[in-house]
Amino acid sequence: MKKYLxxxxxxVPLVMASHAFAADKVLTISSWAGPNHTMNxxxxxxxxxxxxKCSGGSLSAKVEFGLASPPAQYDTIRDGVAxxxxxxxGYTPGKFETTKLAELPGNMGNATQMSVAFQKTHDKYLxxxxxxxGVKVMANFVHGPGNLNTKEPLNSYKDAExxxxxxxxxxxxxxxxxxxxxxxxxxxxxVYEAISSxxxxxxxxxxxxxxxxxxxxxAKYTYHxxxxxxxxxxxxxxxxxxxxxxxxxxxxxxxxxxxxxxARRIGNYWDDADTLGRQKFEEAGGVFTVASEADQAxxxxxxxxxxxxxxxxxxxxxxxxxxxxxxYRSQVK
Length: 333
Hints:
Elements: H1 2-11, H2 14-18, E1 25-31, H3 38-55, E2 59-65, H4 73-78, E3 84-88, H5 111-124, E4 135-142, E5 147-150, E6 164-166, H6 171-179, E7 182-184, H7 191-197, E8 202-205, H8 209-212, E9 221-224, E10 233-239, H9 240-244, H10 248-257, H11 260-283, E11 287-290, H12 293-302, H13 304-315, H14 321-332
Parallel strand pairs: 1-2, 1-3, 6-7, 6-8, 9-11
Antiparallel strand pairs: 3-10, 4-10, 5-8, 5-9
Helix pairs in contact: 3-10, 3-11, 5-11, 5-14
């Protein structure tokens, strides 16, 4: 992982550094995926451009790689090592429970639809749980529909039983357990090496990873559930002190691009990344299989207990979890 992150530092496009021109205030953005990932090639350049346009060039930001491992990103932002960053909520077990509502099987939609619904649900219900400490949530978002991607073909979810598959944290872990897979946990950037070395036989991932993490080179078979297998909840965070130290004008610039519209914009980028990933997957000879209705029913039966478990844990954080989930799904529709 250290070698991987070190290589990212060397590979950061020069365009990122060029944004940090003579601004009065330059914020540090911590990122952990590769330069080709949509967060680094799309989202952060857009954010930096918005800051500069809004402030007349007096507020900018620079992207830094290698500040911390993916699971340590929350601490990195909370502790002020970076001003802004994006986290996988599920990489911090036990810390975030309400965000799992956006990850559940049966949640359908693309990244944009689900991200907007997630942010609206956060504003209306989840923020009251105050799970994020020392940070201000700029936006919540998810990746597109999660799939089962393997080196060998699958004819049904039953074939996945006993397979060594990277599951990734959060609700994806529960889905893997329900399906009887031998779950392997690791941050997303480590998956390519895990599959190539035989540590894992496949991975729970969305289509964007076929390009962003080069999974198309290794996993030639994708098994897709139209009813929603899982997704992953992310947060875009800014350190509370960093935000408080901004001038009123700069705070307005940050506030003007956060919330639902930021979730929508990020979702747009992730949907485009899914399209590109699907294209690269097919160019590499990948086979995309849609689960039959019978297998979708089998999946629903095997994973039926997850929703109640997630609702109970979220409810312990002081919110009406059932109302929140119902609202989330109504907003996706």
